[in-house]
Amino acid sequence: MPKGLFITFEGADGCGKTTQIKLLDEYLRSKGYKTLLTREPGAKGLGERVREILLNYDGEVSPRCESFLFLADRAQHADCIIKPAVKNGMIVLCDRHTDSTIAYQGYGRGVNIAELKALNEMAVNGLKPDLTLVFDIDVETSMERVGTEKDRMESSGIEFFERVRLGYLEIAKQEPERVKVIDATRSVEEIHNKVLELLKNVIG
Ligand code: TYD
To answer: Are 5 and 203 in contact (CB under 8 A)?
Structure first.
């Protein structure tokens, strides 16, 4: 059985990672790999309910409550979906994971990062991405791409997204082996080629 892999796609809203994850999924399938394309928050089942609250609830949500909801979704996702697939030799491509919590709730909302990391460890229980791709883009461009129909998270303001962006770059600086930053202002094809180049390091 081939070795399973866990690859995460990260970046601010509107960075284009969802287009890229689909392109990579198609590429890997065309080469005969077994893949699982999934996302956070809200992969399947219970996760979809949590996603609904996180993105659409219109009352006050405290940053710590928000953190716990993302982590609850992650624990369910890790235990019931990601780990079994990796164990079965699949390449799991995940649209957002742990680094979103550190960038958005930690750097963005100001929740204590050391505490978030400890709680996240409890949620993932040892699961760690083999490779993380951060799609970096200036906030103005990403907000233009998001447009005017914003969900609860996307309505958090320019300064929030500036902090999220810096958060991702800081994470990449701290873990350069795992986390690779890609210039997301390039063309879709150029970015896809860069993704394939970085993938070679983990796929062998
Ligand atoms: P989604 O519609 O999936 O956005 P995108 O296509 O940009 O991934 O919404 C997910 C939102 O939730 C997005 O604004 C990022 C945010 N988020 C967090 O704040 N913390 C987290 O831990 C995760 C997983 C997502």
So the answer is: yes
Question: How many domains is the chain built from?
Answer: 1
Whichever domain contains 84, its CATH number is 3.40.50.300
* Residue with token string 């979809």: 48
**What's the pLDDT tens digit per position in 45-61?**
899 999 999 999 999 99
Per residue in 100-154, pLDDT (tens digit) is 999 999 999 999 999 999 999 999 999 999 999 999 999 999 999 989 999 999 8
* Whether the CB of 18 sits within 6 Å of ligand 1: yes
- Expressed in angstroms and rounded, the spacing between residue 2 Cα and the centre of ligand 1 is 31
Instruction: Supply the range of the domain harboring residue 183.
Output: 5-203
Say whether 132 sits in a helix, a strand or coil: strand
Please choose, from the candidates 119, 113, 117, the residue with its C-alpha nearest in 3D space to the C-alpha of residue 72. 119
